[in-house]
Amino acid sequence: MLAGCTPWPPEFADRYRERGYWTGETLGAFLRDRAHRFAERTALVDADRRWSYAELDTRADRTAAGLARLGIGAGDRVVVQLPNVCEVVEVAFALFRLGALPVYALPAHRRAEISYLCSFTDAAALVVADTRAGFDYRDMALQVRAETGGPEHVLVVGDTGGRPGLTPLERVREQGGAGPGATADPDPADVAFLQLSGGTTGLPKLIPRTHDDYLYSVRASAEICALDTGTVYLAALPAVHNFPMSSPGFLGVFSAGGTVVLAPDPGPATCLALIEEEAITHTALVPPAAMLWLDAVDGGSQAHRDLSSLRVLQVGGAKFAPEAARRVRPVLGCALQQVFGMAEGLVNYTRDDDPAETVATTQGRPASPDDEIRVVDSDGTDVPPGALGELQTRGPYTVRGYYRAPEHNAEAFTADGFYRTGDLVRTTPTGHLVVEGRAKDQINRGGEKVAPDEVEDHLLGHPGVHDAAVVAVPDPFLGERTCAYIVPRGAGPARGELAGFLRERGLAAYKIPDRVEAVDAFPATGVGKVSRRELREAVRAAHAPDAHAPPPAPAAPPQP
Ligand code: OOB
Fold it and tell me: Where is the chain membrane-spanning (predicted)?
């Protein structure tokens, strides 16, 4: 297994194989098999292209061969930061075939996150788009390389704009020639890619997912969602996130021979038009985006849309309020499925035969019969059935450790291998989970996860900030927004200035505090040197959000 990763103990691996969960198929072989079975069916659609399964397969081969010519091979890490274009899928499968590992970055990430990912993983290459929504990824990539001294190759999907040091992906593919080219034969039990965690302490952690475990979660999810060759799935969220990738996501659709349509953004104007044009049957959203869709259709600007093809709207990534959940069928005319998942593994779904109230009020139940669930108190003791506690889990597709993070792993996983999710849940008698809150230090901004530590570290870099504590404040639209309490040095910076400062440091926009409040001092938090965590709790208690909080802006829906 890739160095820096924690394998499942052999007795668990044996059990998962015996029960048929881990089948020994690699992601590269998975696509090859689908290309044989569904050759001329449409696999992938974006704004400009429609690729059949056969075409996607051939492109993945050529790109793999071209990447091999650049010297990229088994075990190499490649940071992939692409929007929802067909190449995001092509590049991933090319890398899988080489046994090289995609490290998935979100399109919203900026220089700070990308530099970190490239250096932390010693990436051999970085793959970016040219420009999107007014942002130039090429310039960012070159800055990353200047700052970190790597990665060796920067590949651009689209136009390099003539900048030296950038390689167009198209040329890599052309140089891969026409043959099946260079493909390795990776071990299906080994790591296929690294997925980003939302993060709690400091910098984001990387989650190593194996071919075996990931394909099992994909198959199980596709089965629960009853996908088939008639499925037309709209990837509205960024395709590199675990939800639209595997729950059941585009991989689940490929496993069933359906069609994936990539949306450039999750907004109702874009997506509801695509539902009509492409006869979409399934899609997945975070709660704020779902709320915008409901309002747009319910007497809003998209009321005229014909959504009759839509069968299932999945909502997950953050808690979906029951009142909004109950509007889905009457307004959109389709079924709701709640999805409570995590990039570390465990995914829960409400099922199509669950009573309507179960679908509206729970976050589903585990995908696998071998997902082990524990709900514990702060001492780690099981709480009585139905009581609130922290969710711990282990199973055939939940990782046993983060990549290169032994110290963090000792905290995030129990001695017997359960992942401490940090989510506060209760179980219902039917085994469904209800997410009631969170024990972890993370802010869930409408599905986008923010680690307070990471933002505080950046804030402390400002000369006018003596100390900082970033906390969540409740918000009717996003569920939570971020508020930075700062103890200023002198007059202290205004929010606008701080926001500019953080952007300048290359921090993703969704991590920039929505509010900044200056205080004279932080409340005392017990004795001695205070931990950031204690400080945040004290700040939260002393400055509970009040009626003066600004009303939420009708922002663009966030993308996890
Ligand atoms: C998904 O994955 P991540 O890794 O971005 O975030 C996981 C965390 C969970 O631990 C939980 O705190 C929160 O996001 N969460 C939910 C939720 N779904 C995720 N909280 C309440 N209700 C829900 N339905 O967010 C993710 C991965 C795969 C599928 C769906 C979501």
Answer: none
